[in-house]
Amino acid sequence: MKQLALVLGLVCVALTLAGAGYALLSHGRGNPGYALIPLIFALVCLSVYRQKR
């Protein structure tokens, strides 16, 4: 469970960075939700990882 939370957290962090990059590079046409939603999941997964640690 602990390892799964860490892996999912890291995947969500990567998706957050990709979504933020897309929103910035699309000159305002990209939705900031592409970065915000994975960020929320990353925070949840990483907090579960820290609690299990």
Descriptive notes:
This protein is mainly alpha-helical and 53 residues long. The chain has helices spanning 2-25, 33-52. Helix 1 runs antiparallel to helix 2. The radius of gyration is 13 Å and the shape is elongated. It starts with a helix and ends with a helix.
Can you lay out the helices and strands and say which pair or pack?
Layout lengths: L1 H24 L7 H20 L1
Helix pairs in contact: 1-2
Task: Give me some keywords for this one.
elongated; mainly alpha; 53 residues
User: Per the principal axes of the C-alpha atoms, what is the gross shape?
Assistant: elongated
Average pLDDT level: 93
Order of helices and strands: HH
Number of strands: 0
Separation of termini? 11 Å
Which stretches of 5+ consecutive residues score pLDDT under 50?
Answer: none
Q: How is the biggest beta sheet arranged? A: none
Q: Enumerate how many helices there are, as a single number.
A: 2
Strand content: under 5%
User: Helical percent range?
Assistant: over 70%
Oligomer: single chain
What is the SS-derived class? mainly alpha
- Report the radius of gyration as a whole number of Å: 13 Å
